[in-house]
Amino acid sequence: MTFRKYLVLAGVTVFAAAGDSMLSHGMKQAGNISLSHLQNIILALLNPWVAVGILLLLAFFAAYMNALSWADLTYVLPATSLGYVLLALAAKFVLHEQVSPLRWLGIALISGGVGFVAGGPALTSHEHSKSPPFDSAQGELLAKNAINQAPAQDNVHAVSSGVRR
Amino acid sequence: MKHAYTWGGILVVVFASVLGDVLLARAMKQVGDVHELWRRAGLWAVVSRTLGNANFFLGVTAMAVAFFSLLFALSWGDVSLVAPAAASLTFIGNAFAAKVFLHEKVDRRRWLAAVLVAAGVALLAG
After folding, report:
1. DSSP annotation string for A74-143
2. Inter-chain contact A116–B106, Cβ cutoff 8 Å?
3. Among A30, B22, B39, B79, who pairs with A44 as Cys (CB 3.0-4.6 Å)?
4. Cβ burial, residue B95 (10 Å; 0-12/13-18/19+)
5. Residues whose CB falls within 8 Å of the CB of residue A32, separated by 6 or more in sequence, listed in order
6. Residues of A whose CB is below 8 A from B33
7. Closest by CA position to B84, among listed B20, B23, B13, B34
8. Could you tell me which of A24, A163, A71 has the C-alpha nearest to residue B110?
9. Residues in CB range of A19: below 8 A, 6 or more apart
10. Strand, coil or helix: A72
11. Do residues A104 and A40 touch, judged by C-beta distance below 8 A?
12. Of B89, B110, B95, B17, nearest to A114 (Cα)?
């Protein structure tokens, strides 16, 4: 995991949370949309909150796809759930809303879950190792190491080509 | 009857979003590490390889189905039930699907994480 990859995961979290809340704020200003008043959708798109919210969600999608290209789905998803924690913390410290004990428990559970996953390897699936290595010499070396005994430092690659349960 | 509609809607949302996540994850694994690809071949290669991937399009379609069925489910049931139920069941479903279809090594650590996050999301969104 490089610093850049952590930045991408942070982007997934922050863009999703910020995009969702801006969209929700904007849609409350824009009012109801029903099938009989479809023109309201266009009016809603002109609302700056809605427009920026959509842009942020597009940025979220780009970061999400980026993360999925080098990490497992079960690694990236808990990171996205940190967005819920961010929203609850923002509600408490920025908007000064009341956060109930049950919600604090929810925050603790999500944080615990993310901590569990973050401690492990980012990539364990086989498919990734099938794609040709970018540096063939390094790729061969990694494959050899994985077959024999993997160095602890490179556990990501080791698991990706090692024995699957 | 309304209950059945609500839970049916929730199940459709969960199924479609799990399907979408799995397809998108598979698509991006086929594209390969975008940081490497970008460095070797430029941004255009990343974009064209992603948009040219069939799984990517199927995944986006499944996500769109999930989005619209969520709107329907929300019109049948309470937000306080539909939103947390759909979100947390999707986490559990994704852990299963990632193990079966993506061959990810979902060990005890990741199962525990999926269950903790699902419970936490249910509490926060509820």
Report:
1. HHHHHHHHHHHHHHHHHHHHTS-----HHHHHHHHHHHHHHHHHHTS-S---SHHHHSPPSSHHHHHHHH
2. no
3. A30
4. buried
5. A40
6. 69-70, 128, 134
7. B13
8. A71
9. A53, A54, A55, A56, A57, A59, A60
10. coil
11. no
12. B110
The answer to whether A33 contacts chain B (CB < 8 Å) is: no
Q: Do B120 and A81 touch (CB under 8 A)?
A: yes
The verdict on A158 touching B (C-beta cutoff 8 Å) is no
User: At residue A159, does pLDDT exceed 50?
Assistant: no
- Given a cut of 60, is residue A165 above it in pLDDT? no
Distance (Å) of CA B14 to CA A5, A119, B10: 28, 27, 6
Comparing CB atoms, the residue among A84, A116, A134 nearest residue B124 is A84
Contact A81 B91 (CB under 8 A): yes
Q: What does the DSSP 8-state code read for residue A153?
A: G
Query: How many helices and strands in chain B, by DSSP H and E?
Result: 6, 0
Determine phi and psi for B84, rounding to 5 degrees: -70, -35
A126, A128, A133, A134 alpha-carbon torsion, rounded to 10°: -160
For B42, phi then psi, to 5°, come to 90, 165
Give the Cα separation of A8 and A3 in Å (integer).
9
The answer, for B18 touching chain A at a CB cutoff of 8 Å, is no
Q: Which one, of B94, B95, B84, lies nearest residue B119 by Cα?
A: B84
pLDDT tens sequence across B43-94 = 999 999 999 999 999 999 999 999 989 888 888 888 788 888 898 899 999 9
d(CA A155, CA A1): 11
Structure tokens given for A5: 């990859």
Residue at token pair 């349960």:
A165
Closest CA to B60 of B19, B92, B10: B19
Contact B28 A69 (CB under 8 A): yes
Contact (CB, 8 A) for B35 and A1? no
Supply the ipTM of this predicted assembly: 0.89
